[in-house]
Amino acid sequence: MKDVEYVYAVSYIKTLENKMLTHSDMHTLIASSGIDEAKRFLRERMWVGESTEELLKNELENAWKKAYEVCPEEAPVDLLLYENDFHNLKTVLKAAVAGEKWENMIISPYITPPDDIEKAIKTKNFDELPEHLKDVAREAYSLLTSTMDGQLAEIFVDKTEHLAVLEGAKRTKSEFLIGWAELLIELTDFKTAWRCAVLNKPRDFVKNALINPKEQLIAPIGAVIEEIKKAYPEADTESVGAFEKWCDNKKLAYAKRAKSDSFGFAPIMAFLIGKSFEIKAVRIILAAKENGWGEEIIRERLRDAYV
User: Fold this and answer.
1) Is residue 246 domain-shared with residue 198, that is, in the same domain?
2) Predicted structure pTM score
3) How far is CA 105 from CA 108, 121, 202, 289, in A?
4) Is residue 196 located within the same domain as residue 256?
5) How far is CA 192 from CA 78, 119, 140, 229, 302, in A?
6) Terminal CA-CA length for the chain
7) Do 116 and 198 share a domain, yes or no?
8) Which among 54, 209, 261, 268 has the fewest CB atoms less than 10 Å away?
9) Nearest to residue 95, comparing CAs of 113, 120, 118, 115?
10) Minimal CA–CA distance to 124: which of 108, 110, 144, 138?
11) What dihedral do alpha carbons 5, 8, 10, 12 form, nearest 10°?
12) In terms of Cα–Cα distance, which of 190, 186, 188, 246 is closest to 221?
């Protein structure tokens, strides 16, 4: 499909971007006297829902609904929902094997209904699942039931998710999407290597946990930080938390680069990425209001785009 065919969709998406919360709105939320005032402010901005979860869920799902309505069918926006599908696979798989409930741990929006995942697991008919899930679901089920090692199964699913996104991005031949997938993999491996070093995980564990098991990352904390600094001299490596915040800021900055484009699907993807981060920021603020955290703590946890 020619990029010009996305012009209407991109124009419409830009009107939705203009309705997103501004810096001023975020400051108003942060300064609100409590959770009730914060929720009232969001409703005034046309967010819909009574509870915190309803407000967040409805706003994100509405953004995806509008994106789907204007996007040509060929638009690869589903790649951004792989994360939710693979999360839900892990959740439903572990719950089904343990005989527990999973309904309250599902992330939406998603491509694959969680009920379909549960049915595939219970009937062991994984071919009924979409192409991006069926093989990983089959292998994850076999891995979990043979080892009863939930962490091992999670690592396998997480690695497969990132590689599936990269494979899908390469099929689109979109430089934006390929760059996005590669950035996610690189940052994820840096974070994984750091966490493993902190926990002093065995070499084989680290090698298995990394998506691209580079020898330089199977190392002590100092060596891992050195590798991060080689790739990103500007990275904040003061602590794991500071680095994870920097990673989110890096991803947001990458997505924003596509917003000025008027052709192709990259600006639509950038809007959806930005919306997901907006939802996360509001979640932090509302959680803070519910728990009585001060403004200083909130600002420390928010990503740079929202403070």
Assistant:
1) yes
2) 0.92
3) 10, 17, 30, 22
4) yes
5) 25, 32, 20, 16, 21
6) 39
7) no
8) 54
9) 118
10) 138
11) -160
12) 190
d(CA 133, CA 85): 8
Q: How far apart are CA 270 and CA 257, in angstroms?
A: 8
pLDDT at 263: 74
- Would 10 be classed as within a structural domain? no
Helix or strand or coil: residue 154?
helix
The string of DSSP codes covering 189-222 is HHHHHHHHHHTT--HHHHHHH-SS--GGGSS-HH
Residue 287: name the closest of 302, 304, 272 by CA.
Answer: 302
Q: Which tokens sit at 239?
A: 């602590």
Residue ranges in the chain modelled with pLDDT below 50: 1
> Between vectors from CA 224 to CA 219 and to CA 227, what angle results, nearest 5°?
125
Which pLDDT value is given to residue 303? 80
C-alpha to C-alpha distance for 156 and 190, rounded to whole angstroms: 17
What pLDDT shows up at residue 307? Answer: 62
CA–CA dist 172, 129 (Å, integer): 22
Structure tokens at 106: 């599902």
Number of domains in the chain: 3
Domain membership flag for residue 19? no
Whole-Å CA distances, 283 to 35, 57, 116: 11, 10, 28
Scanning the structure block, which residue is given the tokens 């991006």? 132
Handedness of CA 228, 231, 233, 236 (dihedral sign): negative
Of 33, 57, 28, 61, whose CA–CA distance to 45 is shortest?
A: 28
Q: Determine the pLDDT at residue 1.
A: 46
Predicted confidence at residue 115, as pLDDT, reads 97
Residue 161's domain comprises 77-173
